[in-house]
Amino acid sequence: MATVVKPATAPMMPRIAPREELNPFRIAQIQFDMAAEFLKLDPSLRQILRTPKRVLEVSVPTKMDNGQVKVLTGYRVQHNVARGPGKGGIRFHPNVTLDEVKALAAWMTWKTAVVNVPLGGAKGGVICDPKRMSKSELERMTRRYASEIVPIIGPDQDIPGPDMYTDAQTMAWIMDTYAMMVGHAAHGVVTGKPLSIGGSAGRQDATARGLVHVVEEACKVKKIPLRGASVAIQGFGNVGAAAARIFAEKKAKIVAIADTRGGVINPRGIDPIKALRYKERSGTVVGMPGASRISNDDLLTMKCDILVPAAVEGVITLHNADQIKARIVAEAANGPTTPHADEVLARRGITVLPDILVNAGGVTVSYFEWVQNQQGLVWDLEEVNARLNRTMSRAFQEMLEAMRKHHVPARAGAMILAVGRVAEATLVRGLFP
Ligand code: GLU
What we know:
About 45% of the residues lie in helices and about 15% in strands. It has helices at about 25-40, 45-50, 100-115, 135-150, 170-180, 205-220, 240-250, 270-280, 295-300, 340-345, 355-360, 360-375, 380-405, 410-430, and strands at about 55-65, 70-80, 85-95, 120-125, 160, 230-235, 255-260, 260-265, 290-295, 305-310, 330, 350-355. Bound molecules: glutamic acid.
C-alpha cells in the first residue's frame, strides 16, 4: 500500500497557548495537532481525526438502598473506528466530565494504534461516587447504564473494558445485561471479565506488566540498571499496586507509594505485598509500619530513578515540572502530564514514557481476550504474557525509530506513529458517502 502520510522535512513544534491548558480534551487535541503538523496531514483529515465520531449522553436512574432514586449521568464516546471496533474502558468517578471521556476516547484511538491492534478508540463513564455505593446499588447503576449504551456497543462495534473503579464484576454485569437484551450469548462485548465467563489469563496485571516491560527497555537505552533502581508510585489501585509488585520482583526498590489519602516513603524500600495487605485492612497505605508519611505532591517531586503517576490526569503541570527529579516518568495513568510540563521535562532531559505506549498493556490483553472470545479459544498465562511482551517491545522499538527520525521526545514519537497509522486507514477507506 502506498504511504499516504509524508513526514515533515523540517519539524516544528507548534506553539502552545501561553496559559497552561488543563482541559483534558484540549490537551488531547494539542498533542494530536503536534503529530498532525509533523505528518503534514491535510486540514480536512485533521478535522476528522481531532473530533470524536460519536458522543452519547445517557441518564441513569438508579434505585438506592434507601428506596430513593438518583438520576446519574453517563457517557459513551467513540472517537475513531477506522482501524477496527471502538475499544476503551468505563470509568465510575465523581469527577467524570464529557470532555474527560472525549479525551480518554481519543487517547484510546492512539493507544490501540501504537501497539498496532486492529481496534479503534472509545471510552465511557458515569458521574458517581462508587466508594459510597453498596454492591447492589453499583449493580443496578451498571446494568441501567449498560442498557442505555446497548444500541452502540457490541463485539463488532464497540467493546468496553475496565477503567477507574470498574472491575471484572462490573464487566460481568455489563455482559449479562447485553446478552439478556440482544437475546444471545456475546462474550466478546466486553473485556476484563472474570475467567469463568471468558476473561483472559493475565488481564488483571496486564497494564502493570506491560508498563514494567517498557520501563525495562527504556532503562536499557538510558543505561539505568533496573535492579536497585528507586521507584515512586502515585496511585495504589489496580495498576499502581500491581506495578509495585512487579517492579519489586525485578529487584527494583519501591521507595514511595501514595493513594488518594496520602503516601508513605522509605528510602530503604517498601514491601508492596505488605502495603497492599495494609491497604486492604485500613483503606489506605498511610500509617503502614516501617515507612514515614509523604504527601502526594512531595512524592511527585522526590528524588528517584523512576516516577510512576498511576492515578488521575493533570498531576505533572507547570507548577511542579521543574522540580521533578526522576530520570524516567512512566505514565501508568492516562494524561498525567500537561503539554507545558512535557516541554519542561524534555528540556531537562527527563524521559516521559507516554501513556499511549506505556499503559497500553491493558488494552493489548483486552484485545487478546476479545480474539479468544471471538474464536472460542483459551490461551494460558504464559502465552498471553509472551504475546504481551512481544507487542510492547515492538511498539517501543517503533516509537524509538519515530523519535530518531523526527528528533522528538517519546510522546511525540508515539503520537506520530499512532496518528500516521490512523490517518492511513482513514484515507484508504475514503469518505462515506
Ligand atoms: N482502561 C484501559 C485504558 O485506559 C483500557 C480498558 C480496555 O481494556 O478496554 O487503557
